[in-house]
Amino acid sequence: MKMFEALTIKSRLTIVMGLLCLFLTGTGLLGLHSLSQVNSSLKSVYENRLLAMGRVEIMVHSLDLLRYSVATSANDSNAAAIDAKLARLKRDLGDGEKAWGEYAAGNLTGDEKARADEVIGAFHHFFEQPYSRH
Question: Where are the domains of the chain?
Answer without folding.
Answer: 2-128
